[in-house]
């Protein structure tokens, strides 16, 4: 189980940080606790440029992946620190990453009342409509007189405080599991029994059942993601071992929410070029996870050409490239015989023909050495894409060697 724990202060020394470090070690058999420093975030402002929100985006991804959240708050002037409130603002403004996420509050302070007042305020914030967390009721962890409850090496040594912490954290783990069991049951029901299990879709080229459609998307050798016409992440194929790991918690998010801030301008350029009819496809070869992959973005349109969204196809091309490099295409496709059946000088080869269009890739029939054939990656920008007929002029592609693996957008300015 993965827990994300927030240090609710940016102070260099904090007993709340020591408490979370103690919990990380003490409960390591129960959960994997990652400690997050809210001081790394920029101060919340709706006018903060995207280029300065990379750390905010990274935090949102951590929250989405976590099974539960722990907020450790000190008490400043009977309330929570400003830096913690700023972090909550980032996680609740125009985003739903906190919604229905199991949460727990702990706190350490110097006085006898510990952080009681700040925890009351924190509870009000976390159950507000914009946050809407599943905050565990009761189970208060209020540790006061910290000079006597912590040893110099940072260990919590007050046994009464340890016993209460253990009881509350065990209840929190059980609380998380309740929601996980509900979600798992709903997921299994959807997999085993689609909403309309016996329905068929009649296509112009044949008929498929809903079960067949579902399994086709899980079986095809590439993954698919869909951004709908309103620029929201609408769907992804449930393919094992995806290059881009997707989370159902991201469904419904805007392009800005589900992409790294530095990548958003490039992604929106692709989408806008599709929406405006300037392009139909953008292709990006990239190194991903240690192997060569190909990402292709296609404009999704209805039969009348109206824009429906953007589809992203991603897949490893190592298998195909290895076949090519091992000479798989050196034999005649119909007979398996080598094109050179004897040791005599080979006849002059015919110009290579593109398989999808029948057009020669050579611009003329001459063998002029001063005008050699142009390599695929050196072709002029105005060359037409062979699969769609769409010109790649004005391509928004980033340089391949600096492209972000998830979007193709450059991260060099990060």
TrEMBL record:
SUPFAM superfamilies referenced in this protein's UniProt entry, alphabetically: Flavoproteins
Region (Disordered): 331-414
Matches recorded under InterPro entries: Flavoprotein-like_sf (IPR029039), FMN_Rdtase-like_dom (IPR005025), NAD(P)H-dep_reductase (IPR050712)
Top-level taxon: Bacteria
Domain (NADPH-dependent FMN reductase-like) ranges: 1-145
Stretches with biased composition (Acidic residues): 362-371
Stretches with biased composition (Polar residues): 332-344, 403-414
Identification of the protein by name: NAD(P)H-dependent oxidoreductase
Species assigned in the record: Limosilactobacillus portuensis
């Amino acid at each position: 189980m993965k827990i994300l724990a927030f240090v609710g202060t940016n102070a260099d020394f904090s007993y709340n940080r020591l408490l979370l470090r103690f919990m990380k070690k003490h409960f390591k058999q129960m959960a994997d606790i990652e400690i997050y420093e809210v001081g790394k975030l920029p101060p919340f402002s709706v006018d903060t440029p995207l280029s300065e929100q990379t750390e905010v985006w990274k935090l949102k991804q951590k929250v989405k992946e976590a099974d539960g959240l722990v907020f450790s708050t000190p008490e400043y002037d009977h309330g929570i620190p400003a830096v913690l409130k700023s972090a909550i603002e980032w996680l609740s403004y125009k985003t739903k990453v906190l919604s229905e996420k199991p949460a727990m509050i702990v706190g350490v302070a110097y006085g006898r009342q510990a952080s009681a007042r700040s925890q009351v305020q924190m509870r009000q914030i976390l159950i507000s409509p914009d946050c809407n967390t599943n905050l565990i009721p009761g189970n208060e962890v209020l540790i006061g007189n910290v000079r006597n409850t912590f040893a110099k090496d940072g260990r919590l040594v007050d046994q009464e405080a340890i016993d209460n912490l253990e009881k509350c954290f065990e209840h929190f783990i059980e609380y998380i599991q309740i929601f996980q069991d509900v979600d798992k049951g709903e997921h299994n029901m959807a997999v085993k029994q689609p909403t309309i299990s016996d329905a068929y879709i009649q296509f112009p080229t044949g008929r498929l059942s809903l079960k067949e459609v579902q399994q086709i998307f899980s079986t095809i050798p590439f993954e698919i993601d869909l951004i709908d016409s309103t620029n929201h992440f609408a769907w992804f194929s449930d393919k094992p071992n995806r290059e881009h790991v997707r989370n159902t918690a991201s469904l419904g998010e805007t392009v800005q929410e589900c992409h790294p801030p530095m990548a958003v301008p490039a992604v929106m350029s692709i989408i806008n070029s599709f929406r405006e009819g300037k392009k139909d496809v953008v292709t990006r070869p990239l190194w991903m996870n240690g192997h060569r992959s190909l990402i292709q973005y296609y404009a999704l349109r209805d039969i009348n050409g109206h824009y429906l969204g953007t589809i992203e196809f991603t897949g490893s091309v190592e298998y195909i490239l290895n076949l090519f490099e091992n000479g798989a295409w050196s034999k005649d496709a119909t007979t398996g015989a080598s094109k050179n059946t004897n040791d005599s000088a080979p006849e002059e080869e015919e110009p290579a023909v593109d398989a999808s269009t029948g057009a020669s890739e050579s611009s003329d029939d001459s063998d002029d050495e001063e005008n050699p054939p142009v390599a695929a990656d050196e072709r002029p920008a105005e060359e037409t894409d062979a699969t769609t007929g769409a010109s790649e002029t004005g391509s928004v592609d980033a340089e391949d060697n600096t492209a972000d693996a998830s979007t193709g957008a450059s991260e060099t300015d990060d």
